[in-house]
Write a structure and sequence with these properties.
- This protein starts with 35 loop residues before the first helix and ends with a helix.
- It folds into two domains: 113 residues, no CATH class; 253 residues, Peptidase C15, pyroglutamyl peptidase I-like (Aminopeptidase).
- Helix 3 runs antiparallel to helix 4, helix 4 packs parallel to helix 6 and helix 4 packs across helix 7.
- Helices cover 35% and strands 16% of the residues.
- It has a seven-stranded mixed β-sheet with strand order 2-3-1-4-14-5-10, with helices on both faces.
- It contains twelve helices and 14 strands.
- Strand 2 and strand 3 form a beta hairpin.
- It is globular.
- With 418 residues, it is an alpha/beta fold.
- 50% of the residues are buried.
- This is Pyroglutamyl peptidase.
């Protein structure tokens, strides 16, 4: 994702804040309307993607399971089961296990995205016979979001002597009103890498992945911290990944504490300092601890890889924003990190701030990598007339996934052998 100026790419990142389900139902709330994001489901492209992947049965299946449910507890069990099953199904499809379910290639992340939205819409508009409070409904949607994004499925083998642990994050598709066909290579990478083992100079490393939404409110409610905190002290390396600029990878050197206001998937913008716990101790900038020199020097694939150092700041004592090609100056106020001021910058900022607050800055390599923008093939760039996929589009996504895997391996090699 990029800065507001010329760049948008991203993202980015996801989780809703935890709601504690009451032990007894309160007065039933009125089922809310679908969100802006969920309303896009009725368009032709999402329906085609679901049908051509076989994922068009996910939301109807959940609706059937919820039919006749008599209690909140029973509903929660079903939602957790169905959300987890959707994540596992998407991972297995991406990694070549089981039937493809249709003619879309297995590297496609979009079936998971649209199927999840179908399922959250079912829960959001569900009107059971028993009283379902607004708080309970929110908790059900939260459970569905978490399980279907792999956030409850991070499992490193117990023991595993000599086995390193790596955590990678991806994002949903975004800018869907510009082109509803869009895919996010970071989400596709998460599906392709989840549970896999990469071979490093120091031995094998197990990769676990999660996916985040492109929504400001989820980040404000702590989805990143809630998801990553249980694992950062246990892993040996982490990498947040999002879609960035055309034709290049970027290792983002510096992350800024500023939201630039670009609309999210619910068409909501936020322009403010990144909201975090304990804002009194919040820094304006955080930095990568990935081995960026080694990553940039390595031959990881067909796209060039850059050590990206540019930021936008208000200098100490100043009032106007200034672009700094070599990083921030002392005492400045952030207006864009290397990854811009959208949710890709924010996940990088939050993850590295959490690393630092856990006392891991000097021991845990981690930071953000932007992938190239995933482009459709020549002659298929107009969303009004184009098709949902083409051979060049698939090749670009497959190559980006492979190069992220190679970058991750270089990062692991460079850090684990020290």
């Amino acid at each position: 994702m990029n800065s507001i100026r010329v760049r948008i790419g991203v993202l980015a990142v996801a989780l809703l804040a935890g709601f504690a389900a009451p032990t007894t139902a309160t007065a039933a709330g009125t089922a809310p309307s679908p969100t802006v994001e969920e309303q896009r489901l009725d368009k032709a492209v999402p329906q085609e993607i679901l049908e051509r992947s076989g994922f068009d049965d996910a939301a109807p299946g959940l609706a059937r399971s919820l039919d006749g449910v008599r209690s909140y507890a029973q509903a929660r069990r079903i939602v957790v089961h169905e959300g987890s099953a959707l994540w596992r199904r998407a991972v297995e499809r991406a990694q070549g296990r089981g039937p493809a379910g249709g003619d879309l290639t297995r590297d496609d992340d979009r079936p998971l995205y649209w199927a999840r939205l179908g399922m959250t819409r079912e829960v959001r508009t569900w009107e059971p016979e028993f009283g379902l409070s607004d708080q309970q409904r929110a908790a059900l949607i939260d459970a569905l979001e978490r399980t279907s994004r792999g956030q409850t499925d991070v499992r490193y083998p117990q023991g595993g002597k000599g086995l390193r642990r790596v955590l990678v994050t991806g994002f949903d598709p975004f800018t869907l009103d510009r082109d509803i066909r869009i895919s996010n290579p970071s989400g596709a990478t998460a599906l392709a890498l989840d549970g896999t083992v990469i071979r490093t100079a120091d031995g094998p490393a197990r990769v676990e992945t999660v996916v985040f939404p492109v929504r400001w409110q989820d980040f404000a409610e702590g989805t990143v911290e809630r998801t990553l905190r249980p694992y950062l002290k246990k892993v040996d390396l982490f990498m947040t990944v999002s879609q960035g600029r055309v034709g290049r990878f970027d290792v983002e050197r510096t992350n800024g504490a500023w939201r630039g206001g670009f609309p999210d998937n619910d068409n909501i913008g936020r322009t403010e300092t990144v909201p975090v716990s304990d804002p009194a101790s919040q820094p304006q900038w955080t930095t990568t601890t990935l081995p960026y020199k080694e990553i940039v020097a390595a031959n990881t694939g067909r796209f060039p890889v850059y050590d990206h150092t540019e930021v936008t700041e208000i200098p100490a004592g100043g009032t106007d924003a200034v672009v700094r090609p070599d990083g921030p100056t002392a005492g400045s106020t952030a207006r864009a990190g290397g990854g811009g001021n959208y949710l890709s910058n924010e996940i990088a900022y939050r993850a590295t701030l959490l690393r630092d607050r856990l006392g891991l800055h000097d021991t845990l390599p981690g930071g953000h990598v932007h992938t190239p923008v995933l482009q459709f093939g020549t002659g298929n760039t107009d969303p009004a007339t184009g098709t949902v996929t083409d051979p060049e589009f698939v090749r670009n996504r497959v190559d980006i996934i492979a190069q992220v895997r190679a970058i991750l391996t270089v990062a692991a090699d460079a850090t684990f052998r020290k």
